[in-house]
Each structure stands twice: as C-alpha cells, then as structure tokens.
Amino acid sequence: MSRPTKHAPERGNARTRLLEAARDLIRAKGFAGTSVDDLCKAADVTKGAFFHHFASKEALGVAAADFWAETTSAFFEAAPYHGPADPLDRVLAYVAFRKAIIEGEIAEFTCLVGTLAQEVYASAPGIRDACARSMFGHTATLEADIEAARQARGIKADWTAESLARHTQTVIQGAFVLAKAANDPALARESLDHLDRYIRHLFHLTREHAA
Amino acid sequence: MSRPTKHAPERGNARTRLLEAARDLIRAKGFAGTSVDDLCKAADVTKGAFFHHFASKEALGVAAADFWAETTSAFFEAAPYHGPADPLDRVLAYVAFRKAIIEGEIAEFTCLVGTLAQEVYASAPGIRDACARSMFGHTATLEADIEAARQARGIKADWTAESLARHTQTVIQGAFVLAKAANDPALARESLDHLDRYIRHLFHLTREHAA
DNA sequence: CGCAACATACCAAACGGTCGGTATGTGTCA
DNA sequence: TGACACATACCGACCGTTTGGTATGTTGCG
C-alpha cells in the first residue's frame, strides 16, 4: 500500500491558510484594517511565505475574493434548497435558506466580497472586479430558477429574471449592513421576510403556500 | 452697514472642513484607508488643528457620523417628497426621491454611515453606534408616514411600519453595495424599482397609480 | 491678561515590501 | 543508479515610509 505519489506539486497549504485567515480577518476588520502581519500571525506563516505566494497585499485581496467565489459556490451547490421540483419552490427555498444561515456571530455569516467591494471599489479596481465576479456569478445561479418559474407559470412580468436575482442579492447585502450597524442579526432576517413576501406577490402566490 | 458680529464663537471652521473632508474621503477610501494626514491635507489644516478638535482618529469617526446625521436630516427635511397630502403618496415619493438622487459619481450619492458601519462594526463600537443612530434616526422619519398610510387605508398587515421602514433602508444600503461592486449606479436604481413595486403591493395599489 | 485656535517639529510603532538564504523535492541523462 | 540542474516552499532579518499621536510654541481677540 504505497502512498500516492504527488505529481502536481501540491499547492502549498500555507497559501490556503492565508486565504482562510484573510476571509475571517477581513470580514471582521476590513481590508485596510487587516495588516500583512495580522494575516501571517493568524495563518501561522512567516512574511516570507506570504510574499512567496502573493505578489502584494492587493494580490491577496483578489485571491481571497476568488477563493470566496470557489468555496461559496461549492457550498450553495451542496445546499438543500435545490430539492423541490417546482422552480418557484426552489427560489423560495433559496430565500428561506439564506435566512436560516443568518445566525451566530456577525463576522461568520456576512459576505466577504460585499464588505470588500464596499471598501475598496475606488482604490483597488482589481479587487472590486473579483468581488463583482463572485457576487454576480452567484446571482446568475438563481436567475435560471427565476426564469424557469416565470415561464412555467406564464407570468407576464415587467421585470426580468436577471433584475430580480440581483434585487435578491441587494436585499441580502443590505441586510448585512443593517445587522452590523444595529449589531443584531434579527434585522437581517426581517428583511428576508419582506423579500419572501415580495417574490410570492410577483408570482401571485398566497402567503400560506409552503416553500 | 456693519458686518454681523459673531456671537456664538463660531465653532471653528477647521473643524467643519475636517468633517467635510472625512465625509468625502471615507466614502471613497474607507475609514482605515484614510489617514489623518490625508484628512488634514484635504481640509487644508495642520495636524495640530486636527488633534485640537478631535481627541483621536476614532473620535473624528464618531463626529463624522454625527455630522452626517445632522446634514442629511436637514437635507431630507427640505426635500420635495413631503408635499403630497396622502401619506402613502409621500412614502412612494420618498422612494422616487431616493432613486432620483442616485446619479453621478458613486462616492457622491452613497451613504457614509452605511460604509462606515460595515467596516468598523467590530473594531470601533463607538463609531458603529453613531452610525446606527444616524441610520435608524432616518428610518424613523419614514416610519410615521408608513403607519399613517396603513391606518388611513385600513390595511390589515402582517408587518409593522417599523420593519417596512427598515426594509426600505435595507434595499437602499444593498443597492449601494451592488452599485459599487458593478461600478454602475443603474443597478442601485433597479432595486428601488422593485421596492416601489413591493410597497404598492402591500397597499393594494396598481402599478399605474401616480406618486 | 487669558484662553481658544491653530502651527511646527517631532516620536515610537507599525506598515508593506525586499532580500539572501535553506530545505526539499523533481526531471533528466549518462 | 546516481548525480547534476533546477524549481518550489518557506524563513526571518531588515529597509524606508507612513502611521496615529504628542509636546511646545505662536497668534489674535475679547
């Protein structure tokens, strides 16, 4: 029983630990508020390792946003809300799922790329664009279900699936801002209830219809 | 024709210039990304003046949030959306007004206290609380019109005026996040259209009803 | 005079980033 | 098989600059 030979020279795990540290520290303290030394300490690596893997702090920011895109898309793909056969039920289940995962520490359920984009949109366009790719890549996955629901139910809409998918993201991002300001996750959940009610309205559903 | 004597020993205008610089720079670069030197340069004052007026950089952050609360509440009080006699019309006019002022440079129409709270909610509770006061002080002004509209129209609601006022703020804050990520104000306006549609639904209004 | 409103010069710490070096593979060809 | 060339991963001392903050004036006005 031989150990598998490592062909591709295993992408160092210092790199991964730094990306995880970036995810956690930036969500709690912001990008500018997190120093390279902070990141190295949290990841338990040296500064040499940091600049071996990333050309600059800004490059780490871009990589962190890409890392976020990868890990969250895997997370949402594996999530239970894809179960229902009816596409509208999947959309409502998505909203319910987003509401359900809002709990515990604020830094643990809020969005890295939303925080990051808000902070550096003007000073670091590379990071901003990586955040946009992550955010709108995610809304695109919801868009398909919304469009399918619209067609299946023959809804004549003066809105597009794309805009409703983006509006859903708007409510989620805004909910995080209010939760942070008030230091209370309940405010975020509250807005997701309004979003749920709005979507049911657009599809002529009663409030009682189960998701 | 004598010059008006200044009685109240005019709260130094270096202080005001610093607060204005803080408002503009923090919206563009974030709080941690804006240095005391940056602020002094933009306000054309020296560091001595800065620390004469503010005990620390964090104290300036609190003062900037308070300054934002004062100036925006004056701005919204003077805004035209208070005109309509019907309270619901005032609410819809508010949403239309918020949409109308989204134009030009992103840093010019986005919200200081939203940005600030998102960045420092965990590391500077004093600033966060000042942001919360500004934000929820503003939503409270909308809440009155929403509640009046609900009573005037005899709406039996499973939501409160308070929560709808906060949801409105949620959509506005989230709209700013998406506009920054995509570098496009149009995305912010788009979500305000969804919000308008939602409010009309809650009050059983047709889409055509004029605001 | 006395005090508020500044200006100037300075400081220690923290910052992002560089650099010479080591340890450990890995591919290749005689 | 072994040895040479080269690559990757990482270390930690060090560098120049910027940081938030302080100490000590100076100025002008009631």
Describe this structure in words.
2 copies of one chain form a homodimer. Chain A is mostly helical and 211 residues long. The first copy, chain A, has a domain at 61-202: Tetracycline Repressor, domain 2 (Orthogonal Bundle). In chain A, 70% of the residues lie in helices and 0% in strands. Chain A has 10 helices and no strands. Chain A has helices at 13-29, 36-43, 47-53, 57-77, 87-100, 106-109, 112-120, 125-152, 161-182, 186-202. In chain A, helix 1 crosses helix 2 (36-43) and helix 1 packs across helix 4. Chain A is elongated and about 60 Å long. At the A-B interface, helix 7, helix 8, helix 9 and helix 10 of A face helix 7, helix 8, helix 9 and helix 10 of B. The first copy, chain A, binds a DNA duplex (30 and 30 nucleotides) through helix 3.
